[in-house]
Design goal:
By secondary structure, the chain is α/β, with parallel strands linked by helices. The chain has 10 helices and 6 strands; from the N terminus they run H-H-E-E-E-H-E-H-E-E-H-H-H-H-H-H. It has a 6-stranded mixed sheet with strand order 1-2-3-4-6-5, with helices on both faces. The longest helix is centred in the N-terminal third of the chain and has 140 residues.
Length: 402
């Protein structure tokens, strides 16, 4: 039974007992003694029964009170545990909130790092694309530069070849020489077309070959060309028609860079000459053609021919040697610029890039090449320059000072 129900039961029993007692007391006053005794015994029995019931109820009440006390103890313990759990829950909530803040902060930092990482990846990707574009641009520039250099080289070669052939044709057609000449587009009848020489001069029933040559690495190129040309001539069906002397014509600016201007291969002599020496060479061969039958010449005529050829040969060799030495001296002087401060060197290089290349006037070059008298006059003008001040002006100045 619940404590509340037990209390109500006790109150009812006590109330009922009081009512019984009062009734018995009233009945005893006017009833017979016998009935009173019987009624008293009955009441006593009922009272004892009630007492037993009350004792039982009290026992139950004590048991219930004991259970109640135990429950109260447990409730207190549970209350304490509940409060402790509440405190623990609160602490855990606080920890959870702190942890959540840390997690939120970490997630925000992670998002920031992710965005920064993505930005870096995008920047790296852009840098990679720019690098690839720059590499492609450099490759295109290099290819374009190589193409322009090749075109310029081909143009210079072709220009040099055209000028050399034009010069050879011009000299060979002069009245003083009158050589029969041919080019690779107009070869003599029956001549082996596989050779394709730039220019041919007919000399005593044979042909002297003139080839224009130019290269960025001229010494190596000439060594290779000498061997190839000698083999082509030797295997040619026109071998017996070719005079065993071949002239490689190179620009006079390149001639000074050569240490060797004469080669011998497969019984053929190769000379490396500049365009300026073509006329003296043809003049020497013309003299030889005028004296085809050398056995019929008198000693003085033979001596004159030998002296002339020797002079031409010495002049060409001297000119080649002088060009080499002057070029070597020029290279030595150019190396001296390395001693200059870097700032000055950069200014010099920048100034060089903006300078136009020196060009020789074809008219002046032609005039000096064709006329020894003009050469003498030019030399005389250099060694005896005109005065910058007239003589009469100088005399008047001297008188005024005196």
């Amino acid at each position: 039974m619940e404590p509340f129900e037990i209390t109500i039961a006790l109150i009812l029993i006590i109330g009922f007992s009081v009512l019984v007692f009062l009734n018995l007391r009233k009945g005893g006053e006017g009833a017979p003694q016998k009935e009173t005794l019987e009624e008293s015994a009955k009441v006593k029995a009922e009272s004892e029964q009630k007492e037993r019931e009350i004792g039982r109820i009290m026992e139950e009440l004590k048991s219930e009170q004991k259970d109640k006390n135990e429950l109260q103890g447990k409730n207190k313990q549970m209350y304490v545990e509940n409060e402790s759990l509440k405190a623990e829950v609160k602490r855990l909530q606080q920890n959870c909130e702190a942890t959540q803040k840390i997690i939120s902060k970490f997630e925000a930092e992670e998002v920031r790092k992710m965005k920064e990482h993505e930005k870096q990846i995008e920047s790296l990707e852009n840098s990679r694309k720019k690098l690839e574009e720059e590499q492609a641009r450099v490759i295109r520039d290099d290819e374009e530069k190589s193409r322009r250099e090749k075109e310029e080289y081909d143009r210079m070669w072709k220009e040099h070849e055209n000028k050399t052939c034009a010069r050879l044709k011009e000299i060979s057609q002069k009245r003083d020489y009158s050589f029969l000449s041919y080019d690779n587009a107009n070869l003599p009848d029956g001549f082996d077309g596989s050779l394709k020489p730039d220019f041919l001069i007919e000399f005593l029933g044979q042909y002297i070959i003139f080839d224009a040559k130019e290269s960025n690495d001229l010494p190596t190129y000439l060594n290779d060309q000498v061997k190839k040309t000698a083999m082509k001539i030797k295997k040619s069906s026109s071998f017996n028609e070719i005079y065993p002397v071949v002239f490689f014509v190179v620009p006079h600016t390149e001639l000074g860079n050569l240490r060797k201007a004469q080669y011998y291969e497969e019984g053929i002599t190769f000379f490396v000459v500049s365009p300026e020496t073509i006329e003296p060479i043809l003049a020497a061969y013309k003299k030889i053609t005028e004296y085809e039958n050398l056995a019929d010449l008198d000693p003085q005529e033979r001596e004159n021919i030998v002296n002339l050829i020797a002079q031409y040969d010495r002049h060409i060799s001297f000119q080649n040697a002088a060009n080499i030495l002057i070029s070597q001296e020029g290279v030595k002087v150019m190396r001296e610029k390395k001693s200059l401060p870097m700032e000055l060197m950069e200014e010099v290089e920048l100034k060089k890039k903006n300078m136009r290349p020196v060009k020789l006037k074809d008219s002046e070059l032609k005039k000096l090449t064709e006329s020894p008298e003009e050469q003498e006059k030019a030399i005389e003008d250099m060694v005896k320059p005109k005065r910058a001040i007239e003589k009469k002006d100088l005399e008047e100045t001297q008188e005024s000072l005196l």
